[in-house]
Structure formats: structure tokens, C-alpha cells
Amino acid sequence: MNRKEDGGQAIIELALALPMMVLLVFGVIEFGSALNHTMVLTAAAREGARVAGALANGGGPLGCGSGQSPNAATVDPAVVAAVERVLTASGTQISLADVSEIRIYKSTLSGAETTGAVNQWTYALNAGPLIGGERLDFAEQSNTWTACVRNNVTPADSVGITVRYLYRSRTPLRYFMPFTAINLSATTVMTLNATR
What we know:
By secondary structure, this protein is of the alpha+beta class. Helix content is 34%, strand content 27%.
């Protein structure tokens, strides 16, 4: 073998390896970005569940009658505001418009949604209720588990928070993949704080 043949072989190997290396690098970047978004969604669901557990039914005697649970109407908006704060924290790169829904539900023992006890919130820029002087970017679509019927005495209800998000590919790899978006979701379940 002579040097001329070795040089030709090296060029061919480089020409074959370079695209594979570029795909590998972009794949790692894309995977890291999707993992980062998943961690943010998990933190948002956890914060929403923490707030939901702490606020329970809005305070006061249980029930939806006059004088009962006086702050019940602000419980779910406060939960959604907590989720939104985490999603929009600096550096998250989460687009609220790609959050398909936030679900607040009464959890079964296995963590699943209880049929007929799910409140759904969807993205609507500045169309939500006013919380802390700012409009939420999520509006309530259904409210079948009102805060004033939540049980925070032993055995207390458990609240589940699910955040669903459409992750969109961020690297040039999206031009070569058969899919450019992936549905991600995160769920956290916590017991409502017991009345003291």
C-alpha cells in the first residue's frame, strides 16, 4: 500500500464519519433539551400539588354554602399560578402556548384521576383570573371538583396535578426526523393537609 491510497481511504472515512458525528451531537443536544423540559414540568406539577395541598378547600367549614370555605374560588387559580411561575422562571425555555393543559383532580389510591372530579385549565394569553395583581395565562375549561367539597380531614383527599406539554425539536435535526414534536407530561399527587 502506498501513501496515496492511505490518504484516499482517510478522506472517505472522514466523509462517512462526519455526518454521523453531527447527528450524534445534535441528538445529544436534543435529548438534553427534552430532559430539561421534563424536569421543569415535574417541578411545576410538584409546586402546584404543594400549593393545592396547603390551601385544601380555601379555609373555613367544609361545604359550598354561605360562610363556608370563603376563599374556595381562589384555590385553583392559586394552584395554576404556582405552576405558571415555575414554567416561566428565567432560563426554562418553556413556551406557555405549548402547554396543552393543566389538570387538577381528585386522586384515587393508585394516583389516577377520579371520574367526574377533574378541573381542566388551558392556555389563553392573559385570559385567566387575576392572581397577585397579574392575569393568568390559563383559563378554566371545566370545574367538576370544586374546592369547597375537598376533604382535608382524616382520611384526607389526595390532589393530583398534571401538566401536559408539546415539546418541539430545537436543533436542525428536526429537518431529518420523522417527528418534530413530542407530547410530554408530568404528574404529582399529594394529600390535602389535614385541618388542625
